[in-house]
Amino acid sequence: MATNKFIFFIFIFLLNLSFSSHAQAPKLLKTIIVDAGHGGSDNGAVGEYEGSLRSKEKNVTLAISKKLVAVLQRELSDVSIIPTRTTDIFQNVNEKARIANQYHGDLFICIHADSGPLKTARRQIGTHIVTHYKVTYTGKGKKKKKKKAAYEVEEPLYQYYKLPLQRAGTSVWIFASHKTSDKLKAIIDNADEFNIEAEDSLNNNIDFTSPEMKPIVAIYAKRFQLKSINIGMLVEDEIAKTGRKSLGLNQRQVGIRVLQSTNMPAILIETGFINNEEDERYINSEEGQNELAESITQAVKRYKNIVENGKSTNGAVVQNDVNQDPQRNNPPIVK
Ligand SMILES: [Zn+2]
């Protein structure tokens, strides 16, 4: 590519970014990938507290994802909705990301359920007889003898059990900005599918892996992040409308590799805490699963309207306001 043409290209590209909502042709939201977290041999989190339903995260995420796919298809008939899995199969993170990239997703939604370390408690369930030994010595020097006398004591008998988590609610996660390099790699790896929103005539024969292109690809990755924040805030808003505790939009510094490996805006929704009594019942219930699917769909509809028309259906301004990790205790690791 001639240098002057390249510079011109960069200029046009940055101009497009600067006035993204005005100068740029609207990008249609055509394909949404819905990822049911975990699966197969990977159970994810499991209900472990006393009185728990013993539910497994992989089943909860699949049930919610299936409902979400159905509601999205009903509400957005012009959008392809692609689930990463529809059965109880194992997929590693790369496989999930590969499906998302292969179908040229415009939005990646991961469904998960949260957990955290459980405290153990004990209760007395009776008493039991325990044999102890009292050791005494008689005599001195070579005649010293050890004498062991058994005696029985009645002691309390305890049962140990796990306490449910107090923490409850739904939270939405995006990848951290300093992880942009991973996102950048996902974009570069998918360079042939990279839809750069500039004039087609300038779009030919661009090597996205070249050093000159790296800053531009980085800007593009940043823009995915802004879109991820946008959809994340909307999901958060719709969940809050149901009266359910909403823990906010968060950036996780580590662990959301699935979000970093996709060539598209991506969010991860922790639908509830599987080890919180109320949450576990909610995310396992038809009612709870339907409510989550409807809320997420409403958010996607608003996001689609913003992306395609540059405005929100209710005129709400989406702010760039994301919680950072320190505000959250024990962030769970999502593989
Ligand atoms: Zn998970």
Structural account:
This protein has helices at residues 3-18, 20-23, 57-75, 93-102, 180-189, 214-241, 257-260, 277-284, 286-309; strands spanning 31-36, 80-83, 107-114, 120-138, 145-162, 170-175, 246-252, 266-273. It is of the alpha/beta class. The protein folds into two domains: 3-117 and 168-327, Aminopeptidase; 121-161, no CATH class. The protein has a six-stranded mixed β-sheet with strand order 2-1-3-8-6-7, sandwiched between helices. Strands 4-5 form a two-stranded antiparallel ribbon. The longest helix is centred in the last third of the chain and has 28 residues, at 214-241. The model is unreliable at 1-8, 14-24, 192-205 and 313-335 (pLDDT under 50). Zinc ion is lined by residues 37-38, 44, 57, 112, 334.
What labels describe this entry?
single chain, 335 residues, alpha/beta, 2 domains, six-stranded mixed beta sheet, 9 helices, 23% strand, elongated, disordered C terminus, binds zinc ion
- Radius of gyration, CA atoms, in whole angstroms: 27 Å
Distance between the termini: 40 Å
Reading side by side through the largest sheet, how are the strands ordered? 2-1-3-8-6-7
Task: Provide the helix percentage.
Answer: 25-40%
Mean pLDDT: 80
Q: Number of helix segments? A: 9
Structural class: alpha/beta
Low-confidence parts? 1-8, 14-24, 192-205, 313-335
For the sheet with most strands, the description reads: 6 strands, mixed
Name of the CATH superfamily of the largest domain? Zn-dependent exopeptidases
Bound small molecules, which ones?
zinc ion
Report the sheet-strand fraction: 15-25%
CATH class of the largest domain: Alpha Beta
Number of domains: 2
Shape descriptor reads: elongated
Helix-strand pattern = HHEHEHEEEEHHEHEHH
Count of β-strands: 8
